[in-house]
Amino acid sequence: MLIIGPPGSGKGTQAARISERLGVVAISTGDIFRDNVKRETPLGVEAKTFMDAGDFVPDSVTNRMVRDRLAADDVQEGFLLDGYPRTASQVAELDDILRENELALDVVLQLTADDEELVRRLLGRAELDGRSDDNEQVIRHRLGLYHDQTAPVVSRYDERGIVTRVDGIGTIDEVTDRVMTALKVAR
Ligand code: B4P
Predict the structure, then answer these.
(1) Is 56 in the pocket of ligand 1 (CB under 6 A)?
(2) pLDDT tens track of the chain, all 187 residues?
(3) Is 61 within a domain?
(4) 21 tagged catalytic
(5) Ligand 1 closest atom vs CA 13
(6) CA 4–ligand 1 middle distance (angstroms)
């Protein structure tokens, strides 16, 4: 399955819980990038400039990384992709990767929340974690990219009839309950 939503909608938060409850591996492109930035690998050095500006890391880099990750054995029993695909080109690439690995998508979970709530949450996270892309100007840029480029990605999956929408407003536990109920219906 995929989990898609604007920055701050709770993707990473809910992905960890879904992964634990369903026993499927959660793969977050943002987490992989941040880990590489921390370890100062060539991938991390390349990704950092884009991430700090709130821009997408180029598709060529991101696609190669996801292709490698989805070739691992642990995805065969199910997987949850968090934060990918985010562009039309990534949708096409993911279709190819899944076909080549004889994998299929069952559900695309979309988390929704309004922009002002998202800005509030991410500014709250900035105070706790000090993430370099969590300042108001960059947050608003990331939200703009979501609306321009990632919302159309959801429409592509809507045409395939596999999107389940969940309201991301409420406490983390409330959202998890909604997600688990929605997934039971969707599967
Ligand atoms: P991500 O790591 O995906 O960052 P994000 O969109 O901000 O989501 P995240 O998962 O961190 O936050 P969440 O909604 O869980 O990407 C970071 C960067 O990596 C991108 O900007 C880009 O540069 C690059 N990148 C990643 N994937 C890419 C791709 N496919 N192509 C190109 N570039 C890519 O939650 C955020 C906060 O909200 C948390 O602090 C949480 O505690 C809080 N929260 C969650 N649920 C809540 C609730 N119900 N109530 C209150 N607070 C809540």
Answers:
(1) yes
(2) 999 999 999 999 999 999 999 999 999 999 999 999 999 999 999 999 999 999 999 999 999 999 999 999 999 889 999 999 999 999 999 999 999 999 999 999 999 999 999 999 999 999 999 899 999 999 999 999 999 999 999 999 999 999 999 999 999 999 999 999 999 987 6
(3) yes
(4) no
(5) 15
(6) 10
User: To which residue do tokens 């400039």 refer?
Assistant: 49
Residue 10 lies in domain = 2-178
**Substitution candidate for ligand 1 out of 56, 84, 132 with most atoms within 8 A of CB:** 56
Identify whether 183 is part of a domain: no
For residue 106, give every residue at least 6 positions away whose Cβ sits within 8 Å of its Cβ, in sequence order, or none: 1, 162, 186, 187
Is 184 within the bounds of a domain? no
What CATH number has the domain bearing residue 51?
3.40.50.300
187 assigned to some structural domain = no
Answer yes or no: is the C-beta of 166 below 6 A from any ligand 1 atom.
no
Q: Which are the contacts of 108, defined by CB distance < 8 A and separation ≥ 6?
A: 1, 2, 4, 154, 157, 162, 163, 164
CA dist., res. 63 & res. 14, Å (int): 23
State the total domains in the chain: 1
Q: Which two tokens stand for residue 89?
A: 């080109």
Q: Whose CA is nearest to atom 44 of ligand 1?
A: 10
48, 69, 121, 142: the active-site residue: 142
